[in-house]
Structures are given as C-alpha cells and as structure tokens.
C-alpha cells in the first residue's frame, strides 16, 4: 500500500513589484488549499480492507492532531496522538512487506 499527499497548501505567490509590502503588524491571509491524501493498494494482495483501515487510522490521527493544535495538549491526548501515529507508521511498514 502506498500513502501519498497529492494536494495541499500552495506556496504563496510572489507579489508584483508595483504592490507595496504589508505594513508592520499587518498579515496577508491566503486561504489554504485542502489537504488531499491518497491511499493506493500497490499489489493485488493488498485488499480494500487494508486501504480502508489505513484511511481510518489517518483520519483519526489527523482529527486528534487538529484538536491538539487548537487547544492545550493534555497528557491523555498526547498519548493517544502518539499511539495513532505509531499505528499509522506500522500500517505503512506492514503493507510494504
């Protein structure tokens, strides 16, 4: 199974020479492109169940990651986030063999 990022936030475009740079304390906000992650079975032996399991693991990991980024990390949340990251890494490693 192969897990790859096929889309995401684009780098900011260069400002034209005629435009003034933003003043101090002023920030330019550009909407971020949605993150697109692709899960692909690399061989016929990898069934759809493995791909679905990896997708669910990644979704749980990303959900916990965004929740943790928005609030203070609690010890239980940190441990759960680390456990989900390890499971995702093991899923990727197991599917390559």
TrEMBL record:
<dbReference type="GO" id="GO:0034314">
    <property type="term" value="P:Arp2/3 complex-mediated actin nucleation"/>
</dbReference>
<protein>
    <submittedName>
        <fullName>Uncharacterized protein</fullName>
    </submittedName>
</protein>
<dbReference type="GO" id="GO:0003779">
    <property type="term" value="F:actin binding"/>
</dbReference>
<feature type="region of interest" description="Disordered">
    <location>
        <begin position="1"/>
        <end position="31"/>
    </location>
</feature>
<keyword id="KW-0009">Actin-binding</keyword>
<keyword id="KW-0963">Cytoplasm</keyword>
<dbReference type="InterPro" id="IPR034666">
    <property type="entry name" value="ARPC2/4"/>
</dbReference>
<dbReference type="GO" id="GO:0030041">
    <property type="term" value="P:actin filament polymerization"/>
</dbReference>
<keyword id="KW-0206">Cytoskeleton</keyword>
<dbReference type="GO" id="GO:0005885">
    <property type="term" value="C:Arp2/3 protein complex"/>
</dbReference>
<feature type="compositionally biased region" description="Low complexity">
    <location>
        <begin position="7"/>
        <end position="31"/>
    </location>
</feature>
């Amino acid at each position: 199974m192969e897990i790859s990022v096929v889309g995401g936030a684009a780098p900011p475009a260069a400002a034209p020479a005629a435009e003034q740079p933003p003043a101090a304390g002023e920030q330019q906000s550009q909407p971020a492109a949605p993150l697109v992650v692709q899960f692909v079975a690399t061989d016929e032996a990898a069934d759809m169940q493995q791909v679905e399991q990896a997708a669910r693991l990644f979704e749980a990991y990303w959900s916990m990651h965004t929740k943790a980024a928005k609030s203070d990390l609690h010890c239980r949340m940190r441990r759960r986030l680390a456990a989900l990251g390890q499971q995702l890494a093991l899923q990727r490693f197991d599917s390559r063999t």
